[in-house]
Amino acid sequence: MRSRWCLSGVLLLAAACAPGPAHTKVTPPGTARVSAVPHALVVDFRDGTPAEAIADRARRWGLPLHLNSVEGLRSGIAIADGVDDVDAALARVRGDAEVEEAEPLVQVEALAFIPNDPEFPRQWNLRMIHMPEAWERSRGKGVVVAVIDTGIAYEDREEFVRVPDLTGARFVPGYDFVNDTDHPNDDNGHGTHVAGTIAQRTNNGVGVAGVAFEARLMPLKVLDRSGLGNSADIADAIRWAVDHGAKVLNLSLGGPGYSGVMERAVAYARSKGAVVVCAAGNTGLGQVSYPAAYAGAVAVGAVGPDGELAPYSSYGEALDLVAPGGNTRLGPGNGILQATLDRADFRKPVLAEYQGTSMATPHVAGVAALLFAAGARAPDEVEKALFEGAGSGGAWTPRAGHGRLDALGALEALGKNAAPVDWTPLAWSAALLVLLLISLKTKVRPGYLNVLLNPATLLPLLLSTVGLWFLRLLWQRYVGHPPAAAEALSLPLPDWGRILFGRGRLASPLMYSALVPAAAALFALRWRALRPVVAGLSLGFAGFLLYAAWAKAPGIAYLPFTFLARPWLVLNGLLAALLCRPMLRKEAGR
Amino acid sequence: MRIRGTVEFRDVEMGVWVLAGDDGKTYQLAGGRSSLLKEGQRVEIDGEVDGAAMGAAMIGPVLRVRSYKAL
Fold it and tell me: Nearest CA to CA, how far is A156 from chain B (Å)?
């Protein structure tokens, strides 16, 4: 008999709330937190120890022992709480011949987030890709996901309605390429279903949950009421999406015809740092449809709840991975459930179960958003994490691609592949320092090493160019996955704004400016001892901002800055350098 | 062009009507009168295959129906 214990009511394994079709669900290792319950212990008596014998010992030991459950009589497991000195009590108990095992009571808590949406238990698809565990690490905060489809039921306007469960979901402006308006409402239901899987309002006590529920949706309508469209509108929408800040593009659409225009649009999106996720097709044949088959796209096939390729799913050479798309041949409850519009009447919101590679695709798009929010910087990094996380051990097959999507696996793979520290801004600062020193008169010019070897200057310099990079490494080595705050602190100081907004966000124009060193310089006017610190800080900012401008990175938040980003960075970099110059001066004649 | 086959409803995506062609291909039906859409109906369709059309169903090339004749 094992005396491995969990405090009832605390154990919230995702599997526990899985009725409907039986899907085996094993909590992956490292996803449970075990902690001792204070002043409590558990004693495992020999099987069949009579209750009187246990009561007798409880009196003798002075412990408020009581059987744990109705099973206690058979299993001999009893617990005691309110024990002042657990160690001393255990020492007394362990010597007894009737006791098999005695230990402190521990509480096992799955590191999983179980949303309160009433229909979540029916979403086998989200458990299959380990969403409850993945939500503990990322929810896609701030990342813009474009849904290029039939539109989204996101507003109550004219004859259109908003699906109630999307109330409170985050949207950015989109476009309707079919009717050429700024209101890409859904008159079909397909796009709303897909968008729901990506970022349905979650933990709101209504309806169902979505994968990246803190991401922002961009509705782009390219398919008409009958679900058909053309390659020109789709190519336009792809370019529009990335030009307006989308990092992930979901295309649950396709056709058999190759289009050079669309292929170039996909390549453009990728070159702008966006991941393009496309449905493999529903022909059931060994040929992936376009645009999924283009080189720059991630082609997604569909599996049912049994993990097998769904009979309708296309597959083949271009397939990248598979994700839950449902298989209704296995009976009701085996499709993908989402909030959408009635197929007979698009003014009527419903919850509906559909199957298709269109339903599989948004799972991948959602996880891509989680990866961007967790710090991925480029589409290559996202795809690498998706494929490695899919856990086929690098093997690729035409019927599964790199394997089945796993949100937790992908986030773990991203952590392992974390980009090394970028030391280039520090080099830029050092070069600037040389220039600044040369510009000073010999009388007031300190030595290069005198500046760099002064900890008061060096520390703020390091902080503003490379950040507390060691924090993340130490955390990973000794504690485990670093929390968001430790991740953010390991970034250069100008990126600390992302502590508030998530790492996938655009940079804040205030942090990417000379504001921080300028404010510090004000203090240095009064307290001269601060001057070396301000020198390091402003030198670091100057190097960081000028390097950022040179490297065309990053996008800066708020619209007017999209085209002003580089002039803004250059101006502020130079301002910071100017601030640094007087701070470096030796006091002449002293 | 004229294509013979059987009209079928397929439960993928939002649900889609197809012509299971006697040529072995599956065509997504677009346009035409609603009387065409009867499960199992044998028909000869006069229409155009729109190879460039894109859509949510992704089940095969789109066949734009001009007219049809029940067989």
Answer: 22
- Specify whether A231 is catalytic: no
Record the tokens describing residue A69, joined without a space.
């459950």
Domains identified in chain A, total number: 3
How do the domains of chain B map onto residue ranges? Answer: 2-70
- Strands B54-55, A228-229: pairing is antiparallel
Helix axes A260-271, A231-243, angle to 10 degrees: 10
How far apart CA A11 and CA A33 sit, in angstroms, is 10
Asked whether residue A2 is domain-assigned, the answer is no
Residue A358 annotated among the catalytic residues of the structure: yes
Q: Are residues A268 and A348 both part of a single domain?
A: yes
SS3 A484: helix
- Residue A141 falls inside a structural domain: yes
Length of chain B as a residue count: 71
CB A117 within 8 A of CB A204: yes
CB-based contact (8 Å) between B55 and chain A?
A: yes
A149 is annotated as an active-site residue: yes
Selected catalytic residue, list A117, A149, A165, A236: A149
pTM exceeding 0.90? no
Q: What is the CATH number of domain B2-70?
A: 2.40.50
Helix (H, G, I), strand (E, B) or coil at A151: coil
Judge if A192 and A291 occupy the same domain.
yes
Cβ-nearest to B54 among A234, A355, A357: A234
Annotate A418-465 with three-state secondary structure. CCCCCCHHHHHHHHHHHHHHHCCCHHHCCCHHHHHCCHHHHHHHHHHH
Nearest in space to A139 (alpha carbons), one of A205, A202, A195, A218:
A202
Q: Per-residue confidence of chain A (590 residues) as pLDDT tens digits? A: 333 333 333 332 333 333 333 333 333 444 555 667 788 888 888 887 888 888 888 888 888 888 776 666 677 888 888 888 888 888 888 888 888 888 888 766 557 889 999 999 999 999 999 999 999 889 999 999 999 999 999 999 999 999 999 999 999 999 999 999 999 999 999 999 999 999 999 999 999 999 999 999 999 999 999 999 999 999 999 999 999 999 999 999 999 999 999 999 999 999 999 999 999 999 999 999 999 999 999 999 999 999 999 999 999 999 999 999 999 999 999 999 999 999 989 999 999 999 999 999 999 999 999 999 988 888 988 999 999 999 766 688 999 999 999 999 999 888 776 655 678 889 999 999 999 998 988 888 888 888 888 999 999 999 999 888 777 777 766 766 566 667 667 788 888 766 555 444 456 778 888 999 999 999 988 888 899 999 999 999 999 999 888 876 555 555 455 567 788 889 999 999 999 998 888 765 44
Q: What is the ipTM of this complex?
A: 0.96
Query: Which among B10, B15, B53 has the least Cβ separation from residue A228?
Result: B53
